[in-house]
Amino acid sequence: MSRFSKQLCKQLVTLARQGRGSYKTVADRSRIAERFSERLSELNIQIRDVKHIKTSHIEKYIESRKADSLSLRTLQNEMSAIRSVLLSAGRNKLADPSHINLSNQALGISGANRDGTKLPITDEKLNAVVSFAQRKDEGVALAVQLSRYLGLRTEETVQSAKSLKTWRQALINNHERVRVVFGTKGGRPRETTVFNREKVLSILDKAISYVSEHNGKLIDKPSLHTAIDRYRNIVREAGMNGKNAPHSLRYAYS
């Protein structure tokens, strides 16, 4: 990343943290702000201040993200985060959701709803993803399986290393549910039902063994957001995008 890009990134992340929302919302917005800056640099758009961001820069960013085969919901969330950052910077015109060139409709990312945008992953697809991930990163392969059989969201999955032993003990004690504490939406702990006890115990045993040899982490990266990016990049390479995006693991949870 160039010096200009680093300056822009620092500024955008600072602005992202000024917006409202839960801890998770702010963290997600900060990660999107960082990605936005990095992608502009990759697109050879060299600017160092938010005041230099143009309509065309945002249009090019969204087009490049479309090429990553992301769902409409994900693209809408990214655009929402960018608008929040622009609003914090006083760029009210660009932040306007009804902007003639930057509305969701103008950008070609409107029309999604929360129902039917993703499908439950099939067992065949799951096996293919796990097999691919094992060749890249065994921790990611284990994370995919935990997400599938415990119905975990991405951030919950990445942070699950802290709970593995607790979950295993709960199952050994014949509990039907385990408590998810880390990475939950809004920071609110929740419980999830274990439908396939023996399968989950087997995965937990492997995950606990793996974590003990990898700095206490399921995905051995220096920060949460780099671990999440590592997870998402590998599963995307394995073909989990669009209707088969990571959330399809939760759709198949049963």
From TrEMBL:
Keywords: DNA integration, DNA recombination, DNA-binding. GO terms for molecular function: DNA binding. It holds the Pfam family Phage_int_SAM_2. GO terms for biological process: DNA integration; DNA recombination. Residues 1-90 form the Core-binding (CB) domain. This is DNA-binding protein.
